[in-house]
Amino acid sequence: MTTDARPLAGKVALVAGGTRGGGRGIAVELGAAGATVYVTGRSSTGGRSDLDRPETIEQTAEKVTAAGGLGIPARTDHSRPDDVQALVDKIAAEQDGQLDILVNSVWGGDPLTDWEHPLWEQDLDTGLRLLRQAVETHVITSRFALPLMVARKSGLVVEVTDGNTARYRGTFFYDLAKSAVIRLAVAQAAELKPHGVAAVAITPGFLRSEAVLEHFGVTEANWRDGAAQDPNFAHSETPAYLGRAVAALAADPNIMAKTGRALATWGLYQEYGFTDADGTQPDFAAHWAKNLEEQYGPLGDPL
């Protein structure tokens, strides 16, 4: 039975790419809202992915359960159709065919992104690998997971991206990947609408992921010290903020009114009233308009 405190009790979610960062934040907050959450990725207690980071799907699943939900880790390589088919078969068998929320948050493209060179000077194999990892994985996952939602004529697909505008994102392959993910939400929304299933894209603002904290040489406990290196960091947000935005969308009985849209934490907090982990309500778009627009131009119009 759902309650105001646990609006997603009885719901089943799959967070693809839930090992760290935004995916972990989403998984944990879906758990806090009462959901059963399958947490997938390639980094597990059985071995690290090629990113060689310490976070694991098991750690995320434990956090989901500690938050009040049920976290189920399932090691999956989302670039492999057979892996994803096996994952969806597992969910269908264990949850009697129920899947209410699909979050496509697979990324892992940071080491593949070349911020220094234009397309014609970039390594082609690396760029194409980024696209396969950041876009094809989402397509593969939706291909196998959507039938569960269509059969039940309800559900929500969330495509996690960077930015909700057509603004160029600084380098060719990164821009193409993040823009394509928004288009995945638009296309899925069009095909799923007759079946009562919604699809949206969502972006955080300046996300304080584990890797970003390391980049600034700080922890979550003293993260504000990082603003000495970059004043914009003072307006960053935790993965929990993104997670609470997704949980609010998943609990919205009128979610179909948003299907096909590219959304952002800085707009959704105003509608749903959620806060970040420290009780604040970061608004990166407002910060941009006040401090960065004159130098870099408008952030862009929402898609």
UniProtKB/TrEMBL annotation:
SUPFAM superfamilies: NAD(P)-binding Rossmann-fold domains. This is SDR family NAD(P)-dependent oxidoreductase.
